[in-house]
Amino acid sequence: MRGWRTLSLQARQLLAASLALVAFLGFTGYALDRAFVETAQNALRERLADLANGYLSGSELDRGRAFISPETPPDMRFMIPGSGLYASVRGEGLRWESASSLGRSLPPVAFLGPGERRFDGPLRIIDARGMENSVYAYSIGVIWESAGDFRLTFSVYEDAAQIQDQVNVFRRALWGYLGLAALLLVLVQMLVLRWSLLPLGNVERELARVRKGQSQRLSGWHPRELESVTDSINSLIESERSHLERSRNTLSDLAHSLKTPLAVLRSRLDSDASFDELRADVAAQVQRMNEIVSYQLSRAARSGHALYAAPIEIEPRAEEIVAGLEKVYAGKGVLCEFEIDASARFHGELGDLQELLGNLLENAFKWAGKRVLLSVKAEPGPANRRAGVAFVVEDDGPGIPPEQVERLLQRGVRGDERVQGHGIGLSIVQDIVAAYRGELKVERSAELGGARFAVRFPPAV
């Protein structure tokens, strides 16, 4: 069983195609063989019928009901013993056989009514040496009026060996040609399979180049049946590379951030500060380092994102977040309105959805005067592909000056490089949008007059 499971795709397809080819050619050969045998038997029947009619037309039956054969039979083999062509007459008190049946025991045939005809075979006969052979028989029921309406049955026999020889010759030719055709078709199948599986071989070679670091991603030149696979592999490669890059940046930021507190501690240890002063400085710098580590770890925890996850319903999560924000900003009396498409789903991690909505809505609550609007719309994609979704958060606050938007959306901006007045929340939103290959736009709200944040995750293609 394990051997079958480890067969290559080429071996599996070649085996399946070969089995189908053998079955098809076998059925075709059997059908042609049966058709030839039936055709040969029909031809034999017609020939024997002509011989029987010709023999009877030249025969006579005297008043003593003795059968008189023609001087020249329709086929001279009727005169040659053992020629393979025989004739016989059966009637009440009458039994006649041609000279060719000398030394052979012809098989009996049933008495037929006037005008009745019958084709039988193969029938067994025994020759003078006691050897058994087979013959085909064609019989005609006759009523002889000149002999007082005497009824008799006239039969013509021919050795089955002759038709069997024809069938054997045909079968040898048939199966020989079918075998040659099968061999040629198998060779063609191997070439076709090799050609059709070349794209898989190319994907395998490209993956090997990616593993060796010789290439950054798979190329885009693949058959459409493999496009979804190669696109998914490229997405995973890019996601892993992006995750690794973010991890390195986080460690680099952490190391850089810790340099200053460590340098302060080192300088204070080398100074003549008193024990109490040193204790206070150490406590302050340890607290600072603890804050730096906590921030960088939380940021690193947000750097991994699931590209393929179960769809998450958006409206219940938004209601939970808004309920909490309304308590925090209860003194402002901000009202949040929803326009959420019931069919919209977020394909990702629950934590990313909460971070995305939480930071956008918190920013809107912070700067809004009285109103916040959350709109969510689904974007259907191609059949059997992931649908997209668009988030829009608007407020009636002062908005964001256009000259600060470009700086706000810059990548890699750390905590001390954020746009004044917006904290680190919008940077987290930017990281999530980038990780899911989405789009983030910051504009002025035409409806409320404040800031408008539009996040779009397009459908999978």
Automatic annotation (TrEMBL):
<feature type="domain" description="Histidine kinase">
    <location>
        <begin position="253"/>
        <end position="461"/>
    </location>
</feature>
<keyword id="KW-0418">Kinase</keyword>
<keyword id="KW-0902">Two-component regulatory system</keyword>
<keyword id="KW-0812">Transmembrane</keyword>
<dbReference type="InterPro" id="IPR003594">
    <property type="entry name" value="HATPase_dom"/>
</dbReference>
<protein>
    <recommendedName>
        <fullName>histidine kinase</fullName>
        <ecNumber>2.7.13.3</ecNumber>
    </recommendedName>
</protein>
<dbReference type="InterPro" id="IPR003660">
    <property type="entry name" value="HAMP_dom"/>
</dbReference>
<dbReference type="InterPro" id="IPR058619">
    <property type="entry name" value="PhoQ/CarS-like_HATPase"/>
</dbReference>
<feature type="domain" description="HAMP">
    <location>
        <begin position="194"/>
        <end position="245"/>
    </location>
</feature>
<keyword id="KW-0808">Transferase</keyword>
<dbReference type="InterPro" id="IPR003661">
    <property type="entry name" value="HisK_dim/P_dom"/>
</dbReference>
<dbReference type="Pfam" id="PF02518">
    <property type="entry name" value="HATPase_c"/>
</dbReference>
<keyword id="KW-1133">Transmembrane helix</keyword>
<dbReference type="InterPro" id="IPR036890">
    <property type="entry name" value="HATPase_C_sf"/>
</dbReference>
<keyword id="KW-0472">Membrane</keyword>
<feature type="transmembrane region" description="Helical">
    <location>
        <begin position="174"/>
        <end position="193"/>
    </location>
</feature>
<dbReference type="InterPro" id="IPR005467">
    <property type="entry name" value="His_kinase_dom"/>
</dbReference>
<keyword id="KW-0547">Nucleotide-binding</keyword>
<dbReference type="GO" id="GO:0000155">
    <property type="term" value="F:phosphorelay sensor kinase activity"/>
</dbReference>
<dbReference type="InterPro" id="IPR050428">
    <property type="entry name" value="TCS_sensor_his_kinase"/>
</dbReference>
<dbReference type="GO" id="GO:0005886">
    <property type="term" value="C:plasma membrane"/>
</dbReference>
<dbReference type="InterPro" id="IPR004358">
    <property type="entry name" value="Sig_transdc_His_kin-like_C"/>
</dbReference>
<keyword id="KW-0067">ATP-binding</keyword>
<keyword id="KW-0597">Phosphoprotein</keyword>
